C-alpha cells in the first residue's frame, strides 16, 4: 500500500472503522488497504468514545474511491440514528451519489427514499437520515445534523460553509468530513478553505483535526514543495508519482498512456488531478487590514506584562471565533507605566463558552 504523504492525527484511543468495514462487506464492497487506513483515521475516537476529530479531511486523486468512503460513512451514521448532510458542489453530483448509494442498500435495512428533485433523502427505521443537497449560501438552513460529508471539498465556498456549520451546533458527537483532491488555486479560488486545513495540519496546531493526503512528493533539489505548475514535463509522468497521487498502484492503467498521447503528461496528470499536486490559492489578501503582519510583529515587546496590582474589572478579555471552531483569546489592560498591554492568551479548540470555562485562570 502507498502510504499517505501527509498524515496528521488527533490523540485517540480507538476507532469505529470496524463497524464500517462490516457494513461495506454487507453492501458487497471490497475496500482497498488505503481506504481501510483512511477510515481508521477519520473515525478515531477518544477516551470517552467520541470522535477524536471535529474536522476530518481526506485528499486523494480523482477516481480512486473516496466517494465510497463518504457513502459508507453517511450510511453507518444514519443506521445509528444520526442525521447526515451529504453535499456536493453540483446538483448532478449529489443526485449521482444518492442513486448509487440507494442501489447498494439491501432491502432489510429498510431504506425509505424521497426522490424529490433537489431534495433527495434516505431515511431508516432507526430515525436516522441522509439528506442530499447541492451546496449554496442557504443550504440546510433550519436543519440539525450530527455529521456533514462535504464531497468535492476543493470547491467549497465560504458562504456555503458558513450556512452548513451551524447545523452541527447541538450535536454531541458532530463531525465535518471533507472529501476532495488537490485544487488549482489559479483557476479555483474556492479551494482556499481546504488548503487552509492542509496548512493547519502541516503546522500541527489543532488537536481536533484529522488530515490524510495522498499526493506526489513534488519537491526541488532542496526539499521545498513545488506547485503543480512548477513541475517539469517528466516529473508527473513518473510511475512512483502517479502511484503516490492515486493512493494505490494499479498494475496496468491504460488511461494514463492514452492521456499522455491525447493531451501530454503534465497537463493531463497534474491538472486532471491524477497525481494530486496543489497549485495553492493566493492567501495573501485574506484577512488583510491596515496593519501588515510584519508591522504587527515589530511591535511585540517580550518584556511587557500587565500590572499585577490592577483590579480585574480593569482588564478586558476578548475573543475571536474562526470558521473552524477555533477560539482565540486575548487580554488588554494597563502596565505599571500605564501604557496599554495586549496579551495573546492562545488559540483553543471549541466554543467560547467551553474555552473560557476551561481557562478561568485567565481571569484569576
What would your notes on this structure say?
This protein has 364 residues and is an alpha/beta fold. It has 2 domains: 266 residues, P-loop containing nucleotide triphosphate hydrolases (Rossmann fold, 3-Layer(aba) Sandwich); 71 residues, no CATH class. Helices cover 29% and strands 19% of the residues. A 9-stranded mixed sheet has the order 1-11-4-10-9-5-8-7-6, sandwiched between helices. A 3-stranded antiparallel sheet has the order 12-13-14, with no helix packed on it. A two-stranded antiparallel ribbon has the order 2-3. Strand 7 and strand 8 form a beta hairpin. The chain is globular and about 75 Å long. About 4% of the residues have low confidence.
Entry keywords:
14 strands, Rossmann fold, 364 residues
Brief overview:
The protein has 364 residues and is an alpha/beta fold. The protein is 29% helix and 19% strand. The chain has helices at 17-26, 33-42, 66-79, 91-104, 158-164, 192-203, 239-246, 254-263, 265-271, 293-298, 352-358; strands spanning 6-8, 14-15, 44-45, 55-59, 83-88, 112-114, 121-123, 129-134, 147-150, 175-180, 209-213, 316-321, 326-334, 340-349.
* CATH architecture classification of the largest domain: 3-Layer(aba) Sandwich
The strand line-up of the biggest sheet is: 1-11-4-10-9-5-8-7-6
Summing up helix and strand content along with how strands pair, one would put the structural category as alpha/beta
The CATH topology label of the largest domain is: Rossmann fold
Main sheet summary: 9 strands, mixed
In CATH's first tier, which class of the largest domain applies? Alpha Beta
Number of domains: 2
Note poorly predicted spans. Answer: 249-257, 265-269
CATH homologous superfamily identity of the largest domain: P-loop containing nucleotide triphosphate hydrolases
Mean pLDDT, to the nearest integer, reads 81
Beginning-to-end CA distance, first to last residue: 52 Å
- What portion of residues is helical? 25-40%
Apparent shape: globular
Order of helices and strands: EEHHEEHEHEEEEHEHEHHHHEEEH
Which range does the strand content fall in? 15-25%
